[in-house]
């Protein structure tokens, strides 16, 4: 009995720590949600109290008056463009690096891995100068393509690791059936690498959805701004009047797509990261 109690002590401590971390993580989210239904008076009187009613008007002001609706559409377009660029460029590149040995292949993969540690904010000035010289500032598609390129290193690293887990037998069987390299990639490898592809697309989409510094520099026109920049300018658009209800409502609007994306892609995300991380 005493031995079983000693064995259960680490488990109890682990469960307590997990519960503690869960509460710390969820409390700001819950607080943000119920604060979005409070009036300014309620928030200023007690920031942590529950609302006396449901102020749906906060969401109306955030969506229309604060221009969050236009920013939301811009962010959606940015995500769509990014996913398209990532799929078109990352999958063939990862397949070539994972399956073919050619002069410089290892060096190219090493450069991609090293580039993971170079963030866009580190080189934001030369990026802006180049984009400005080409007349591509305040251009949402150009910004989306630019940010897509910054996601290539980690995406390729993850996809190369995942594709290495796929047995070569499938490709050899497809070659016997007369498939060329393009058909093997699109009809054999891509369907089998679906968890890795979904993982890369999810991580890249969340990255551009929450991206602020590059968007702030590249998109100064309000008609082109994405959600993070729009949130930062919320008080300016409101005439520097603190509208906490609309601010929290806007934060909830930003949060909803990421939660939905994770709910539907959770299985692929865990599977893709674990497989790609081990082999990569």
In short:
By secondary structure, this protein is mainly alpha-helical.
What are the salient characteristics of this protein?
single chain; 280 residues; mainly alpha; MetI-like fold; 2 domains; 15 helices; globular; disordered C terminus
Walk me through this protein's architecture.
The structure is a single chain. The chain is globular. The protein has 2 domains: 4-35; 68-279, MetI-like (MetI-like fold), CATH 1.10.3720.10. 76% of the residues lie in helices and 0% in strands. It has helices at 2-35, 40-45, 57-65, 68-99, 105-115, 124-133, 140-150, 152-163, 169-176, 181-192, 194-209, 213-218, 227-232, 234-237, 244-279. By secondary structure, it is an all-alpha fold. The model is unreliable at 276-280 (pLDDT under 50). α3 (57-65) crosses α15 (244-279).
Number of E-state strands: 0
Classification by helices and strands: mainly alpha
Under CATH, the topology of the largest domain is which? Answer: MetI-like fold
Poorly predicted runs are: 276-280
> What oligomerization state is this entry in?
single chain
Distinct helical segment count: 15
- CATH architecture classification of the largest domain: Orthogonal Bundle
Mean of all residue-level pLDDT scores: 82
Superfamily (CATH H level) name of the largest domain: MetI-like
Main sheet attributes: strand count, strand direction, barrel closure: none
Distance between the termini: 46 Å
């Amino acid at each position: 009995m005493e031995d079983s109690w000693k064995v259960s002590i680490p488990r109890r401590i682990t469960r307590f720590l997990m519960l503690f971390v869960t509460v710390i993580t969820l409390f700001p989210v819950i607080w943000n949600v119920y604060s979005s239904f409070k009036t300014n008076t309620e928030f200023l009187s007690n920031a942590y109290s529950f609302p006396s009613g449901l102020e749906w008007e906060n969401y109306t002001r955030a969506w229309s008056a604060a221009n969050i609706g236009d920013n939301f559409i811009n962010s959606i377009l940015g995500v769509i463009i990014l996913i398209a660029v990532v799929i078109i460029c990352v999958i063939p590149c990862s397949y070539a690096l994972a399956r073919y040995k050619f002069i410089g292949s290892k060096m190219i993969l090493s450069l991609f891995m090293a580039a993971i540690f170079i963030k866009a904010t580190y080189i934001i000035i030369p990026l802006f100068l180049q984009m400005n010289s080409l007349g591509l500032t305040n251009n949402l598609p150009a910004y989306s393509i630019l940010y897509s390129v910054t996601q290539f290193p980690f995406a390729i690293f993850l996809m190369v690791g995942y594709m290495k887990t796929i047995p070569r037998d499938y490709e050899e069987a497809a070659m016997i059936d007369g498939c060329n390299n393009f058909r093997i990639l699109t009809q054999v490898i891509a369907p089998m690498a679906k968890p890795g592809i979904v993982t890369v697309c999810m991580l890249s989409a969340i990255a551009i959805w929450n991206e602020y510094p590059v968007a702030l520099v590249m998109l100064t026109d309000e008609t082109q701004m994405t959600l993070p920049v729009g949130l930062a300018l919320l008080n300016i658009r409101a005439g520097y009047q603190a509208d906490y209800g609309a601010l929290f409502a806007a934060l909830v609007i930003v949060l909803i797509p990421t939660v939905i994306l994770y709910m539907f892609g959770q299985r692929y995300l865990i599977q893709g990261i674990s497989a790609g991380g081990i082999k990569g």
